[in-house]
Write a structure and sequence with these properties.
Elements (H helix, E strand, L loop, with lengths): L2 H14 L3 E2 L23 H5 L8 E9 L16 E9 L5 H13 L20 E6 L3 H11 L6 E4 L1 H4 E3 L4 E12 L17 E17 L5 E17 H8 L12 H11 L14 H22 L8 H19 L7 H12 L5 H4 L1 H36 L5 H9 L5 H10 L6 H23 L3 H12 L9 H4 L4
Parallel strand pairs: 1-2, 4-5
Antiparallel strand pairs: 2-3, 3-9, 4-7, 6-7, 7-8, 8-9
Helix pairs in contact: 3-4, 7-8, 7-10, 8-9, 8-10, 9-12, 10-12, 13-15
EC number: 6.1.1.7
Main location: cytoplasm
Family: Belongs to the class-II aminoacyl-tRNA synthetase family.
């Protein structure tokens, strides 16, 4: 099943169940305290908090998302993209878990051709490959899974509040979650369900049951429940790419129909082969990880540009700049020194245009943005290379490693990536004082975080949304870019 068919089946199913189809909001978050839209629920936050009255009691969407917090996972796990699409169904004080759970199951397991009795089409997953988790004290959800849906008890696992509880870290709404996992089979890892192995058992869908009023919250796992909420809500998120991976029978989200063509083009340009390995011991692992990262980041850059983000030195523009630079650097480390980004985003455009026609309609403008950015970065690299070469020559002469200060200055002042410093120094037979470099990076990061905190401290109300999103199991922290992208 193609990605676009996953979307249409999603909307057909939830329309038949009385949900209003809501188009994806922009990747630039409609919620002002967040840089990017990080989950399907973000555009609906005012309805969940009661700040606004929802115009419909139930809604469904397929939301474009960016999660920079997952950037270091990209290419290393099979399941984390910086850009992905989250299919969500939402109830604002309407149905609750007794309907949300059976609907999720029905949609996943009904055949692709459709159920003759109901006429509804589903994703046709083998029920025996599905595992579910519930919050350890949520007997209600446990019983719905076991008794109404008929999931055998061996495949229902209870997780604690660390994983399966949602709240805002403040007095207010909260509630348990339940997640659905797909068993990819014994060749992907050990038996025992998601509690044993989250690589073999891949989380595909998270259901959040907003159900209680919390009077005090001391930590993620330590809180007091004051009583039930008058109006209970549902927030779910199914990862479209993860489902596509399962339905298309491929090993990772980077091999699905909307991403694989970019990966293939990158491999072709670099003259390397992709072997789809997840094993770090495999000799081709580093190349595969790099290709997966390049494919993912290229798509994220295209989608950000198409939502109006432009490379810059702050906010979302800075994230875009880093994504593009990581692609170019990745290609360079695969041996490609020419300008190739226009070629890569063209491959991504072709893979995405069926679902997002704007990427084709306005491609000339998007490509121009990308090419300008690439040219600027290639100039930076060539200027940095001259400086690096003289630092390397000096180090060689004195028989000592390239200093951490030199590596840091190259990075900090000249924008020259540390990965490239390491690789080029190694080629010249010179080692690098990485410990000092890392220490200087950490000090700089701490300064940046202190600055960011000082800037935010005047906005108490936006902080609440940060917390809301930081701790939502269908969401992620807003401003962690500095901490997670250490190198570029
Ligand atoms: P994981 O534990 O695998 O990191 P998560 O618990 O952080 O996932 P949620 O916040 O529950 O994910 O998001 C809801 C769904 O969105 C997930 O069940 C998954 O299918 C999908 N999803 C989350 N993060 C990503 C990502 N980085 N790339 C692709 N899909 C994702
Ligand atoms: Mg996650
Ligand atoms: Mg999870
Ligand atoms: Mg989850």
């Amino acid at each position: 099943m193609k990605s676009q068919d996953i979307t249409s089946t999603w909307h057909d199913y939830f329309s038949a169940k009385g949900h209003t189809k809501v188009p994806s909001a922009s990747l630039v978050s409609p919620e002002p305290s967040l840089l990017f839209t990080i989950a399907g629920m973000v555009p609906f936050i005012p309805y969940f908090t009661g700040a606004e009255t929802p115009p419909y009691p139930r809604a469904a969407s397929v939301q474009k998302c960016i999660r920079t917090e997952d950037i270091e996972e990209v290419g290393k796990t099979a399941r984390h993209g910086t850009f992905f699409q989250m299919c969500g169904n939402f109830s604002f004080g309407d149905y609750f878990k007794e309907q949300a759970i059976p609907m999720a199951w029905e949609l996943l397991t009904t055949s692709v051709q459709g159920d003759p009795a109901t006429g509804l089409r589903g994703y046709g997953l083998d029920p025996e490959r599905l595992w579910v988790t519930v919050y350890e004290h949520d007997d209600e959800a446990y019983e719905i899974w076991r008794d109404s849906v008929g999931v055998p008890e061996e495949r229902i696992q209870r997780f604690d509040a660390e994983d399966n509880y949602w709240h805002t870290h403040q007095p207010g709404p909260g509630g348990p979650c339940s997640e659905i996992y797909y068993d990819r089979g014994p060749s992907y890892g050990v038996e025992g369900g998601p509690a044993a192995d989250e690589t073999r058992y891949v989380e595909i869908w998270n259901l959040v049951f907003m159900q209680y009023r919390l009077s005090e919250v001391r930590s993620q796992t330590d809180f007091d429940v004051a009583g039930p909420l008058k109006s209970k809500s549902i927030d779910t998120g199914l990862g479209l790419e993860r489902l596509a991976m399962v339905l298309q029978g491929v090993d990772s989200i980077y091999e699905t129909d909307q991403v694989r063509p970019v990966l293939d083009r990158a491999a072709e340009l670099a003259g390397v082969s992709y072997t789809s390995t997840e094993d770090p011991q495999d000799p081709n692992h580093a190349v595969d990880v790099r290709l997966r990262m390049i494919a993912d980041h290229t798509r994220s850059a295209l989608m950000l540009i198409s939502d109006g983000v432009r490379p810059s030195n702050e906010g979302g523009g800075y994230i875009l700049r880093r994504l593009i630079r990581r692609v170019i650097l990745g290609m360079r480390l695969l041996g490609v020194e020419d300008a190739v980004f226009a070629d890569l985003i063209a491959a991504s455009k072709d893979a995405m245009k069926a679902v997002y026609p704007v990427v084709e309609e306005r491609f000339d403008a998007f490509r121009a943005t990308a090419v300008r950015e690439e040219q600027a970065f290639l100039r930076t690299i060539s200027a940095g290379t001259t400086r690096l070469e003289s630092a390397v020559a000096q180090a060689k002469q004195s028989g000592s490693p390239l200093t951490g200060d030199d590596a840091f200055a190259l990075h900090d002042t000249y924008g020259f990536p540390i990965d490239l410093t390491l690789e080029m120094a190694e080629e010249a037979g010179v080692s690098v004082d990485q410990a000092t470099f890392t220490q200087l990076m950490t000090e700089q990061r701490n300064r940046a975080q202190a600055d960011a905190k000082a800037k935010r401290s005047g906005h108490a109300n936006t902080e609440m949304y940060h917390q809301l999103l930081a701790d939502s199991p269908t969401a992620f922290t807003g401003y962690t870019e500095e901490a997670t992208e250490s190198h570029i």
